[in-house]
Design goal:
With 455 residues, this protein is mainly alpha-helical. It is built from 22 helices and 6 strands. Helix content is 66%, strand content 6%.
């Protein structure tokens, strides 16, 4: 009943269901695309029970709720009506700047995969650890079965991307999935591995490996959706069901292999090279800055804009030093929250600090940011210091992360090399400890300055 009451309060505060274009959610935020953002009563939203804060960002109004956001979202959907959540409206597709539309598309495409993506990454890391410690070999049946599901998710990533992208772009999900499946069809992979050269009616096909790729399936689904929606109205309803997909895939498939796939592969390679070039200018400086201020990006909800970059490094390079730095920042905020809980004299704030601190150790930092770090700003400063030192350690040790998944304590298996090298995991453990304990110690030594901050 509490979620229903909260949903009614939020809906009224954001201008009613008539003002909602689309509602989604991530791990901690209810994300609303609104027709008129001026109708939002931000103060009323943030005063509601269970709401830790809110922010306008990326063309969305993001309400920070915490780990109970799925339940709140479900209740919210009942208030506005399910159809409003099921289909992206024409207003949403064309609203806002190109960046905002791209940002919304990335969120819509990748958010549904985060849970299983994190699970698959952790499982791959744990299997590598088990092999490295001699608990099993890669020939064991148990290893083969678990590895099939863990690696299978990433191997077939283009299919999941194609399905989700088609939904976001307004096309048939199964058309997007089928086209993505063609990119990683076994015969095509074999031709690429054998160095074969094929043509399409005399046009040379640039062979590439699209397994574990992100952008080729995404742009292919976008083009397919445009073609499908152009063709459908022109066909009689008696033949539309099969002929529209037939024409769509017949046109889009060769485009994918001749043009879209090669171009997006080049874009992916260029993006990975550019990111690594920036990191290579001064890894230590990047570690300090990234470790200290990554959570500021989280405040504005723009961390999702980095997802394609971080995933692209994993899928193209098989490893990533950038996210290896970002991953330690959650421990800095967790330490700031726990340190605050130890130091504060308020029983209510003490309980809050411990609860959000534990949540932070699980990789969810928004509750810490909005309930402690921003109201008691000295804690944020302590987190900056701890995160910066930890980021420098990661960069100094050339630490790499080999998968993409949730942060916090669940992240350590992601730092185990598929070959069993655990150097990056040891660096992560050390850096995480520094990130956590530095804010705790600074809080105990210098205090929270709570009176000055909360008066």
């Amino acid at each position: 009943m509490a979620y229903e009451q909260l949903s009614r309060e939020l809906l009224k505060a954001v201008g009613g269901k008539e003002n909602i274009d689309r509602a989604t959610h991530c791990a901690t935020r209810l994300r609303l695309v609104l027709k008129d953002e001026s109708k939002v009563d931000k103060e009323k939203v943030e005063s509601a029970d269970k709401v830790a804060g809110s922010v306008f960002s990326g063309g969305q109004y993001q309400i920070i709720i915490g780990l109970s956001v799925p339940e709140v979202y479900e209740a919210f959907m009942k208030e506005i009506g399910v159809p409003a959540a099921d289909k992206e409206t024409d207003t949403e597709k064309t609203k806002g700047s190109l960046f905002n539309r791209f940002f919304k598309a990335i969120v819509g495409i990748m958010t549904p995969t985060f849970g299983i993506m994190g699970a698959a990454g952790i499982l791959k890391g744990l299997l590598a650890l088990a092999v490295a410690l001699g608990w099993m070999t890669d020939k064991d049946g148990a290893y083969q079965i678990w590895y099939a599901v863990a690696d299978g998710f990433f191997y077939f990533l283009p299919i999941w991307v194609g399905i989700n992208a088609s939904k976001v772009f307004g096309g048939s999900q199964f058309i997007g999935g089928a086209l993505a499946a063609a990119l990683i069809y076994p015969n095509i992979i074999s031709l690429y591995n054998d160095g074969a050269h094929i043509t399409f009616f005399g046009l040379p096909v640039i062979m590439a490996s699209y397994t574990q790729s992100l952008f080729p399936a995404m742009i292919t689904s976008f083009i397919a959706a445009k073609i499908e929606n152009f063709i459908k109205p022109k066909l009689h309803e008696s033949i539309r069901l099969m002929i529209a997909p037939l024409i769509t895939v017949s046109i889009t498939a060769p485009l994918a292999f001749l043009v879209l796939g090669p171009i997006m592969t080049w874009v992916s390679d260029a993006l990975a090279s550019a990111v690594m070039w920036i990191y290579g200018l001064s890894p230590i400086a990047f570690g300090i800055i990234g470790g200290a201020f990554w959570q500021v990006i989280v405040i504005f909800g723009l961390h999702y804009a980095f997802i394609p970059v971080l995933m692209n490094n994993i899928t193209n390079l098989g490893q990533d030093p950038i996210n290896a730095v970002f991953q330690v920042t959650v421990f800095a905020l967790a330490g700031a929250a726990i340190g605050y809980a130890i130091k504060t004299k308020s029983a209510k704030q003490k309980s809050l600090g411990y609860s959000v601190g534990v949540t932070g150790l699980m990789g969810i930092t928004e509750p810490i940011i909005y309930s402690i770090a921003l109201p008691v700003r000295r804690q944020f400063i302590y987190a900056f210091i701890g995160g910066g030192l930890a980021g420098a350690i990661q960069a100094f040790n050339n630490a790499l992360i080999y998968g993409f998944g949730n942060g916090g304590l669940f992240a350590f298996p992601l730092f185990i090399s598929p070959k069993g090298n655990m150097g990056s995991m040891y660096s992560f453990i050390i850096a995480a400890a520094v990130a956590f304990f530095v804010p705790v110690i600074l809080t105990l030594v210098f205090g929270t300055d709570e009176k000055a901050e909360t008066d």
